[in-house]
Q: What sequence folds into this?
C-alpha cells in the first residue's frame, strides 16, 4: 500500500515550500480569527522531542509592547551594522529587516525548557532538542501562514534578554523566534537577499554529501547526483 | 489580491502537517532517486538567516557506518534509561526509538557555522540562528517525505561528538539531526508516545498567550480564544 499523496495534494504542499518568503512589508488589516487559529494549530502539530510540546505562542497586538521591541531591534541593529564594512555596510542599511510596528500581529514563539519535568525522553544527551522542536513549530507556522496568504517575517536582530524582560518570561522560558505576521502586497519570487545579490542560492548538489563529510564513495550515488544536478 | 491557496492546495498542505509522524519501523526497499531529490530540494528551500543556507545533507547507506552509529545509540540509550525510574523506566524500554540499521537510508543534517564567513546578516546577536535555520530544513524534509509516502524518524539519543567522529565532520560543522528514512507499513493515526499514554497532547488554547507571558489582557482576544477551544 502506497502512502504517497495524490499529485494535487503534493502540488499544494510544494507550492507552500517554494513560495514561502521572509516578509517585512505588511498591510494593516487584521488576520481573521479562524485563519489565525488554523495557523496556530498547524504549528502545534509540529514534532517534539519526547512529545513534550515545549512551545508557547505569545500573540502581541499591543502597540506599547511592540514599540519597546522595536526600540530593542534598533539598538541591536546599530550594533550589527558596525560589524559590516564598506560597501557591505552601505548595502546592509538599505535592507528592511523587520515589520514589528506595521504588521497587525507579532508572535513570540517560546520554549519552556522544563515542561513536563526535568527528564525528557530523547533529550537526555542532546539538551537542545526542545529548542529544535520549537523551531519545527515555527516552520509549520510559517508554511501554514503562506497557505493562508499571510506573510511572516522572523526578526532575529534583537537580544533575547530584552525580549524576555519586555514579555515577562520566566527564567526557564526562552524566546526562540520573534515573528511579524500580516497580509502582504506580494510574495517575492525569490528571497530578497538573493535578488539583491547579497548571497547566491547554493546549487542543490553542493549541499548533498555521501556516506561521510569527505564524500569519498560517490559512484554508487551516480543516479541521485544526476537527479540533483537536473534541479 | 488574495494570496490564499485554493481549498485543494490547502488540503494537501494540512494533510502533510497532521499526518506526519516520527517513524521507527521501516521496510527495506530503497527510496527512488527522483523521490529523494524532491525531498532534498524541499529541505534546501527552507528559510535561512542571512540566506546563508548553512546545511549539508549527508546521505548514509553504508552498513558499517550505520553499525557504528547504532552502537553509539545503544551506549547513549543505556545512559538515558538510567535517568528514568520504576514504571517509567520499564515503559521506556518498550519503546523502539530508532531504525538506523533497518531503514534503507540515514541522513545526517549538519550546520556549517562559518559558511560565507564569520559575520552573517541576522545572526550577529542570536548566534544560534544558523542552527535554527538548519532545523527549518529538517522540518521541510520531514513534511516533504510524508507527502512522498516516506517515513522519517529523528534519532536524538546519540552524542553529537560521536556522530562527528564517525562522519568525519570538521570542527565548525555541527550535526543537528540524525534521520532514518524509508517506506513504512503505516503512518500511525497519532504520535506513539501519545497512544502509549507517555504524555498527553496539550489543548491548543493552553499554549497560546496574549500580549505577554502572564496573559493579562484576554478580553480583546475573546473570538480567537473561542476558535482555539473549538479545535
A:
Amino acid at each position: 500500500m502506497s502512502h504517497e499523496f495524490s499529485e494535487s495534494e503534493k502540488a499544494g504542499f510544494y507550492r507552500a515550500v517554494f513560495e514561502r518568503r521572509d516578509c517585512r512589508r505588511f498591510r494593516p488589516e487584521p488576520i481573521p480569527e479562524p485563519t489565525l487559529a488554523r495557523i496556530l494549530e498547524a504549528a502545534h502539530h509540529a514534532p517534539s522531542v519526547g512529545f513534550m510540546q515545549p512551545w508557547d505562542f505569545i500573540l502581541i497586538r499591543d502597540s506599547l509592547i511592540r514599540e519597546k521591541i522595536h526600540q530593542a531591534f534598533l539598538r541591536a541593529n546599530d550594533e550589527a551594522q558596525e560589524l559590516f564594512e564598506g560597501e557591505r555596510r552601505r548595502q546592509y542599511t538599505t535592507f528592511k529587516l523587520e515589520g514589528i510596528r506595521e504588521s497587525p500581529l507579532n508572535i513570540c514563539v517560546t520554549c519552556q525548557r522544563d515542561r513536563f519535568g526535568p527528564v525528557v525522553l530523547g533529550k537526555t544527551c542532546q539538551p537542545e532538542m526542545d529548542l529544535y522542536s520549537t523551531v519545527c513549530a515555527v516552520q509549520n507556522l510559517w508554511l501554514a501562514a503562506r497557505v493562508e496568504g499571510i506573510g511572516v517575517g522572523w526578526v532575529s536582530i534583537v537580544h533575547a534578554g530584552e525580549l524576555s524582560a519586555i514579555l515577562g518570561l520566566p527564567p526557564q522560558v526562552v524566546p526562540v523566534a520573534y515573528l511579524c505576521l500580516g497580509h502582504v502586497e506580494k510574495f517575492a519570487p525569490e528571497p530578497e537577499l538573493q535578488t539583491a545579490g547579497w548571497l547566491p542560492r547554493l546549487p542543490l548538489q553542493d549541499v548533498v554529501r555521501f556516506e561521510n563529510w569527505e564524500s569519498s564513495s560517490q559512484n554508487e550515488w551516480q543516479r541521485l547526483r544526476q537527479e540533483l544536478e537536473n534541479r
Summary: The helical segments of chain A are 7-19, 33-44, 63-81, 86-94, 129-147, 160-167, 192-195, 222-229.
